[in-house]
Amino acid sequence: MPVMDDDYAWQLIQDARNSRRVAPATLGDMNVQRTSIVIDESYGWQFDGELSVSVAALLDTLLPVALGGPDFVIAQLGQSLDGRIATESGHSHYVTGEASRVHLHRLRALVDAVIVGAGTVAADDPQLTVRHVPGANPVRVVIDPRARLAADRKLFNDASASTLHVVGPHAPASPPGVERVVLGCDDEAMDPAAILGLLAERGLTRVLVEGGGVTISRFLDAGLLDRLHVVVAPMLIGSGRPALSLAPIEKLHSALRPSCKSQVMGDDMFFDLDLRASYQP
């Protein structure tokens, strides 16, 4: 009986992303046993062979991303049981475990661009690359209305990927070696739709919004996220920076109730939220 391993499954997922396929689809070579997966419109899949638990989890979590279509926006949050992504001081290394970080790197490899806010860059100094998995680095997009970030941040100083520094009209100069993009802003908050628009002008239409919580909340409030991945660690921080801060609602019937799938991810719990139907009135 044919057997598929993690490496080959990841290769098929990357091939789907690189060819800009959409569901339904068949991945792999139908003429060669053990190499093809049939995916339906709801991202359900069939493989005529044996799969490990890890391969099945890989297909369940990443096929909807790889086959999400040419205009696709996803976000990921890693949080504690009490809904915190960092301490009061901003320390977040690491709330979730290694399996979650590998998953995040795979998400980066499946998109054209990854968006982060200035607060995340200031606190975490991320590289936003795919160091833990095979794949191509996305374009890094830093939302920094006042250009307040120091020039010594890692993503301003390495050539592993291109970096867009999105700033307001009156912001001071950007660090050398990055592309400066000026975008209008209101009360220092940039319009998420305008951000996606400027990326689309550059052919960057598959986007990961990686953080922080404020940035992800703005995209979610604007109804611009197709999917949200939430990884919950068995940890109680007690106080600190919240994962999401959305516009208030008066009644629970106004709450978003997305379709949700869950699975164990290392020591954490992973939730895959399909938000597309949640925005409908």
UniProtKB/TrEMBL annotation:
Annotated keywords: Hydrolase, NADP, Oxidoreductase
Top-level enzyme category: hydrolase
Top-level taxonomic group: Bacteria
E.C. number: 3.5.4.26
Limits of the Bacterial bifunctional deaminase-reductase C-terminal domain: 72-254
Sample GO molecular function, one term: NADP binding
GO biological process terms on file: riboflavin biosynthetic process
Pfam families the record matches: RibD_C
Pathway connected to this protein: Cofactor biosynthesis; riboflavin biosynthesis
SUPFAM superfamilies reported for this sequence: Dihydrofolate reductase-like (SSF53597)
Stated name of the protein: Riboflavin biosynthesis protein RibD
Organism: Salinisphaera shabanensis E1L3A
